């Protein structure tokens, strides 16, 4: 029958992909903490510090949003002008 070679190739490819997946899972286990100690963080920041951080993050987020909107508008302007030029 025809197609037996392609079916064997598919079987080998799936087997190789599965073996690669198993190796990747093993690597994740090795990268875990060896000592087994739980990380603990002590909160030493004040409400004022937290407020400053929050305001700083809000400002950065707003600046990023403005930049994104500006780039989108420039792109749309160029795209529309190209369509008008070639129409």
Helix count equals 2
Q: Please give the share of residues in helix.
A: over 70%
Rg (CA only): 28 Å
Our count of domains comes out at 1
| Distance between the first and last residues' Cα | 56 Å
Measured by DSSP, the beta-strand proportion falls in under 5%
Outline the secondary-structure elements.
Blueprint: H1 4-30, H2 47-86
Using brief descriptors, characterize the structure shown.
87 residues, mainly alpha, 2 helices, 77% helix
Structure notes:
By secondary structure, this protein is mostly helical. The protein has helices at 4-30, 47-86. It has one domain (3-28, 47-86). The radius of gyration is 28 Å and the shape is flat. The model has no long low-confidence stretch (mean pLDDT 83).
Question: What would a concise description of this structure say?
Answer:
With 87 residues, the protein is mostly helical.
């Amino acid at each position: 029958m025809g197609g037996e070679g392609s079916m064997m190739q598919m079987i080998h490819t799936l087997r190789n992909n599965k073996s690669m997946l198993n190796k990747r899972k093993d690597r994740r286990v090795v990268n875990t903490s060896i000592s087994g100690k739980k990380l603990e963080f002590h909160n030493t920041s004040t409400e004022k510090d937290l407020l400053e951080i929050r305001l700083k993050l809000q400002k950065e987020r707003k600046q990023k949003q403005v930049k994104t909107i500006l780039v989108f508008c420039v792109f749309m302007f160029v795209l529309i002008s190209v369509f008008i030029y070639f129409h």
